[in-house]
Amino acid sequence: AQRVTQPEKLLSVFKGAPVELKCNYSYSGSPELFWYVQYSRQRLQLLLRHISRESIKGFTADLNKGETSFHLKKPFAQEEDSAMYYCALSTGNQFYFGTGTSLTVIP
Amino acid sequence: SAVISQKPSRDICQRGTSLTIQCQVDSQVTMMFWYRQQPGQSLTLIATANQGSEATYESGFVIDKFPISRPNLTFSTLTVSNMSPEDSSIYLCSVRQGNIQYFGAGTRLSVL
Predict the structure, then answer these.
(1) Going by DSSP bridges, is the β-strand pair B10-13/B107-111 parallel, antiparallel, or unpaired?
(2) Is the model's pLDDT at A1 over the cut of 80?
(3) Chain A interface residues (partner B, CB cutoff 8 A)
């Protein structure tokens, strides 16, 4: 079965502190992993994908196949990062989303 | 990237009635998807709508309850039929382009 796990429902950090949102996946094939973000009153949108290997809004995520993880990291959190974050796995035919992590950055 | 227009953005409905949600995409797409997003839970795929064929429903969702139309490559509708309070949720239209999923703004449905 394909599955995406985000163990933290809620995460609070202070502004300027590092932040890591955890994501683990379970898939027997070659996965494509994504992070989606939903800011307050906005639509769900793509933040980054692992094959791009780029930094978006200061966020990076590295696919670790050994640990089957795709954690999202940012060295210095900003207030505008407060949002709901979803990790997603694509098998080509199907997308699977984690349950999401609500990030709050405390000023 | 695909731009998706979804309407209505929200509605409050009475038990036993039906609501049809519309989804318009600014480009032609083969596959359109309908998701449900309940508070505190992940996105749940309801069905995949392909143009020219019947929608494919996920386990737990049936056509009688959630009929879907896909008349062309840029448009789809989802109807929530015979609504009950348990149907209160956010319904999302989504399309896939280049293995990236794009989402509409969602329809927030409240059933009284």
Answers:
(1) parallel
(2) no
(3) 9, 32, 34, 36, 42-46, 49, 86, 88, 90, 92, 94-95, 97-100
